[in-house]
Structures
1.
Amino acid sequence: MKRKRVAGLFWSLVVLSLFGCRGFHALNHDFQNPVDTSSRAIERQQKKVYEIDGIFADNRFDGARLNNFSQLDSNRYQVDILPENEPINPSPWYAFKIWSEVPRDIQLIINYDSVQHRYRPWLSSDGLHWQQMDSLQYRLIDEEDLVMNLSVDKDTLWVSAQELQNSHSVEKWCREISNRPSVDFKIIGKSLLGRDLVRLQIGEGERHRKPTIVILSRQHPPEVTGYFAMQAFVEELLSDNPLSDDFRKRYQVLVYPLLNPDGVDMGHWRHNGGGIDLNRDWAYYRQPETRNVADDIVKTSRENKSQVILGLDFHSTWYDIFYTNSSEVRDLRRFKDYWIFGMRDILNEPIRERSSEPQSPVSKSWFYSQFGAVGITYEIGDNTPRDLINEKGKVSAQEMMKLLIFND
C-alpha cells in the first residue's frame, strides 16, 4: 500500500512538472496570414581591410556592412553593399571606415546592386559621435546609388547609414541604467549565434499581481531611430518626478532593447543570423530570439501572477506612424485612441495611425492573441530629427503613464 502511495505521488509530481513547464512557454498561434520562418542561408561579408592606391576601406567592426571596394578611375571609388539574403525588405544598411595615406578629395559611390538608396549618410571620427553629412556633398544616381564627395586623410572616417548602435552600445546603455534601484538587468538567453539577449525589468516594491507593460526594440537591425525613441521612452519611465514615481510603484515593465543582436552586429539589412525576419516569427517561434523573448515574457508574468496589458514594439520606417490592432481588448478599452489624442495635443502635430486585424505573425498581433493585450508597432521615420525623436519618446511615455494610472 505504501509503495502504491509513493508511486502515485511520483506520477502526480511528474504531471505537475510537465504542466508547469508548459505553462511557462508561449502558445503557438495559427494566424490567418502565416509565414514560413524556417532558417535560410545567409551570405556573410568577408571581414578585411581593402587597399587600393593608398586608400583603405575597413569593415572589421560590429555593425559594419561592406561587401567590396574598387576603383573606377583616378579619383572615383565604389563600395558594394549587398543584403544577407533575398528576398528582403529594401533597407540597405551600410557602415565602414575609410582613410588615405595622403590627403585626397575623392568621389565614393555606394552601389546597392538592385535596390534604391534609403539612408542619408552619417559621418564620425571615432564611431561614437555622429553628424549627418551635408546634403550638398552627396547626390543620387537614378534614385538608386549614392555618390559622396569625401575628403580623406590618415585619420579614420566612419561612414554609416545611421548612428552606429551595435550590441556593445546597447548593453552598455542597459548596464548604466540598471544601476538605478528600480531597474534589474538580466541575460535571458542567447541568439542563434550565441550573443546575449538582455532584459530590463522596471518597477518598485512587490511585483506580485502588478500589471505588465512589455517593450521591444531592434527586431530589424537598421532601425536605429526606433531604438532612440525606445531609449527616450524608457528613460522617462525612470525619471524622478511624481508621475514616473507613482507609475513604477503600480506597474512593472519588461524591456527587451535588442531582439536581433546577430543581425545588428553583422550589419544585416533585415534578418537575424538564421536569415529570417524576426517580426514574422511570432506564431511558432522557430528562431531562438523570438522563442527566448516570448517564453521569458510568459514566464515572468505567470511567476508574478501579473497580466500583460500592453506591448509596444519600436521600429523605423519612412515616416512616423503607429500600427495598431483594430480588435478591441477587454482591458484598456480605447487606450490607443486616448494615447494618440494626448500625444497629438501636446506635440501639436498630426500623428499617423493605421489599424488592422491581428492576422499576421507580428508582435502586435501576438500581444493580442497571447494575452488579450493592446499591441502597437511604434514606428519612427528614418530621417526624423533626433530632438523630435527624444521629445516623442518622452511625451508618449508620459501620456501612457497618465492613462494607466488614471485607469487603475
2.
Amino acid sequence: MWMKQLRPLRRRRIPISQSKKTEYRTAYLFLLPSLLGVGGFVFLPFLDVFRRSFLQASGHVFVGFGNYRTVLQNEAFQRAAGNTAKFILVCIPLLLTLSLSIAVFVQQSKTYQKLMKTGFLLPMALPVASVAVCFKMIFDRHGWLNLFLRQFGGKGADWLSSDSAFWVLIACYVWKNLGYDMVLWLAGLSAIPKEQYDAAKVQGAGRWALFRYITLPQLAETIFVTGLLSFINAFRVFREAYLLSGDYPDKSIYMLQHLFNNWFTSLDIQKMTAAAVMLVLLIGGILSGEEFWKNCREKKEEQRK
C-alpha cells in the first residue's frame, strides 16, 4: 500500500481551448513567410557552404579537413584573426566601462541631463561613412592633427599607416557606439528602485558602496545584454576600417572582413568556406557559453531565494 502511495502523480495536461489553437495557427501562418525566407536564404546556403568546405573547388573532390588546415596555416588568416580578437578584447571592455560611467553620470546630473544625452547620442545618428571620413580628416598624414602639431614645432606622424592605426580605429568605433550602449545602461539604471539607495544612504553608505552593492548587482541582466550586443557589433568593424584605410590597410587593422573580401575577389572558395564554418562555430560557441552562464546564474539566484 505504502509503495502505491509513493508513486509520483502524473501531471495532467491542461486542455487548450479552441480559440487558443486558432490563435496559434494564425501566429504560425504569419511566421511562415519569415521562416521560409530564413530557411531559403540562410540555412540552406550555410549547409552548402558547410558541404563545400570539405571539397576541392575544382572537381569537387573530397579533401576532408585539408581546407581547414590550409586556412589555419595561412599567415593572412592568423594576422586577421589575431587583430580581430585583439580589437574585441580591447574595445568591448573599454566601451562598456566608458558607457556605464557616462550613463551613471548622466543619470545623476540634473542640470544638463538632456544636453548630455543629446551630445552622446548624436554620433549614433550619424552614418558610419561620415564618422570615418571625419576621423580620416583628423588623423590623415596631412590631416588636422598633424597640422596642429606642426604649428607647435612637432613633426606629426602617419597615424593610419602605422601601428597607431589600431588605436585610431578603436577611438572611431567607441565614439560611434558610445551612445548606443549608454542608452542600454540608462534603461537598466532607471529600473533600480530609488528606495534602495535612500535606505543605504541612511546607513552611511558612500558612492562606491552604492555602486558596488546596489547598482552593479541590479545591472546583471543589462550587463549580459549590453555585452552580448557589443560582442556581435564588434565583428562589423570592417566598415570603419575599410573607410579609414581601404582594401589593404596597415597590418594592425587588417581584420577578418578584409581577408574575406580579398578571398572573394580572387574567388578562393576553399578558404572562404572553411573559414566561414570555423567562425560560425566559434561565435556560436561563445554565445552558447554566455547563455549557459546566464542560466546558471539565474538558477543560483533562485536557489538562494
3.
Amino acid sequence: MSESNYPTAFGVFMAPFHKIGVSPTVLYERDLQIIELADSLGFQEAWLGEHHSGGHEPIGAPEMLLAAAAQRTKTIKLGTAVNSLPYHNPFLLAERLVTLDHLSRGRAIMGFGPGQLLSDAYMLGIDPTKQRDMMLEAAEVIVRLLRGETVTEKTDWFDLREAKLQVRPYSLPELDVVVAAVTSPSGPVTAGRLGVGMINLAATSPAAFGALRGHWKIAEDEAAKAGRTVSRRNWRLSAITHIAETEEQARKDCTHGFEEIWNYLAHISPLPASEKPDVEGMIDEAIESGSVLIGTPDTAIKKIRQLADQTGGFGSFIMTLTDFTDYERQRNAVTLWAEHVIPEFRGQLKPIREHNAWVRGNEWKAETMAAINAASEKYAAQQQPVSVN
C-alpha cells in the first residue's frame, strides 16, 4: 500500500454519546473544550451530530455549537455530522451553514444524512421509509443553492420559488459538503450524483467495514453517470475510538461508561447487543469484533493501515469520542493521537527518526572531544607571556 493512500487529515467527532445524569450545560462546555484542544494540537476537523431524542445525544442544533467553537478556535474545520435533511427546510438550512462559514472564515463543512433515530422522525411526523428519498431531494437543492443557483422546486414537503441565497459562502470555490454512509448504498449514491464528499461512520464495525470498497465503487459509478467526479481525498472514515498509554489502561478507562453507552447503541443501531455478564467481557467482545478501536497509538496506526488496504485509500480519519471514558481520559486520548498517530501519517516522524539513527550510528564524540581539546590548547598557547629582549 502506497503511503499516498493513507489519510493525512484527522478529526474528532462527538455525536455526542454522553452518560445520562450530567448537566447538559456542562456537557456542551466539555464538547467545546475538546474541540479547542484538538485545534491547539493540530487536528484538521471537528464534527458534531444532530439528534432530538434519546437523552444520550443532546445536541439538536450542531451549527450553533460550532458557531461558538468558531470563536474559540483558529484553524480547525467545523462540520455537522450530520444535519438530518428531512427535518429541515433546505433553504433555511443552507442559510445557517453559510452563516457558520462566514463566522468561521471558511472553516464550515456541511455533513448531511437522512436521520438516524426513528424516535426523532416519529416526533416530527416523518415516515422513516421516505427519509432517504427526502434526503436526496433536499441535498440536490442545497448543493445548487450553495453553488449560487436560483432554485424553483416543489415536493410533497417543501416548496421553493425562485429561491436564491442572498449571502454566498465564504469558502472558495465552494463550501465543503459531505454525505454520511454506514452500510446502505444511499450515501455513496448521493455522493456520486452530486459530486460531494462522503463520511463513513462506524467504519471498523464488521458490516460497515465490509461495505467500504463497494461504497467507493458506487460513488465513482454514480459520479460518472452524472458527469461529476469524486475524490478519495474527500472521503472520511470514522470509528468509535479510545486510546491510552497501554492496552490494559485503555480497557480500564472504558469501564467508566461502556455498558451504558453500548446498550444504548445496540438499541438504536445495527451494533449487536452483548450477552457478556460483565463490562470487561463486553469491552473485549467489541474490540475483537472490530466494532470499536480501543488500544494504544500503535493499535490505531495498525487499524488505519488496515482501513487503507480495505478501501484502496481515503483522505481523513475521524475519532468518534464517547463517554465510554471520563472527560479527562478523552482529553488524554486526543493528546496521544496528536503526539503519535497524526505525525506518523503526515510524515513528520520519519526524518526525525532517520536523523537520530544517523547521529547515533557515527562516532562524533571523539571528534567533538578533539575539537574541544584543540580549542583549549590554542587558548593556553595564546596566554603564554611574550619574551622581551
